């Protein structure tokens, strides 16, 4: 049975399909970007568990930032997800950008996560 998907859902499915083919057992660093905030999770697809999570609405992050919808906020969240991922003994991940282009806030989060010590 073929399910009809529209625009962003189709892009997200296409990206996720190629990630799973190339993951080699590594967990997935998933990014969700809303108008006001940005969220990141490290997910182990084999067990279906979230190993680490960070967002611009975390209390310690929100206190530092004027807005959660900037590239600066995304960089802070990227560093935080890297710290939490390393604390959960995860260093190698695959970056799941979802339906978003690797540009702007998504790129800022990814670059900060790399600087923080995650490999992808």
Could you describe the 3D structure shown?
With 120 residues, the chain is α+β, with helices and mostly antiparallel strands. It has a single domain (25-116), classed as Nucleotidyltransferase, domain 5 (2-Layer Sandwich). It has helices at 7-22, 59-64, 71-87, 105-116, and strands at 28-33, 38-44, 49-55, 94-96. It has a four-stranded mixed β-sheet with strand order 3-2-1-4. Strand 2 and strand 3 form a beta hairpin. Helix 3 packs parallel to helix 4. The N and C termini lie far apart (34 Å).
User: Helical region count?
Assistant: 4
What CATH architecture do you see?
2-Layer Sandwich
Determine the structural class based on helices, strands and strand pairing.
alpha+beta
Strand content: 15-25%
Q: Which fold name corresponds to the CATH topology?
A: Nucleotidyltransferase, domain 5
Distance between the termini: 34 Å
Q: Tell me about the biggest sheet? A: 4 strands, mixed
Mean pLDDT: 94
Q: How do the helices and strands follow one another from N- to C-terminus?
A: HEEEHHEH
| Poorly predicted ranges | none
Kindly state the percentage of residues in helix.
40-55%
Q: Any idea what the radius of gyration is?
A: 14 Å
User: Number of folding domains?
Assistant: 1
Q: Tell me, briefly, the overall form.
A: globular
Which CATH class applies here? Alpha Beta
Strand order of the largest sheet: 3-2-1-4
Based on DSSP secondary structure assignment, what is the total number of beta strands?
4
């Amino acid at each position: 049975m073929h399910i009809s998907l529209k625009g962003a859902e189709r892009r997200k499915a296409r990206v996720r399909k190629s990630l799973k083919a190339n993951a080699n057992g590594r967990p997935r660093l998933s990014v969700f970007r809303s108008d006001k905030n940005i969220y990141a999770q490290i997910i182990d697809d084999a067990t279906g568990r979230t190993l680490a999570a960070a967002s611009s609405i975390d209390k310690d992050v929100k206190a530092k930032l004027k807005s959660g919808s900037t590239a600066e906020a995304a960089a802070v969240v990227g560093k935080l997800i890297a710290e939490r991922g390393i604390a959960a003994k995860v260093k190698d991940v695959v970056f799941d950008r979802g339906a978003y282009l690797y540009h702007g806030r998504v790129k800022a989060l990814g670059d900060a996560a790399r600087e923080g010590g995650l490999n992808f």
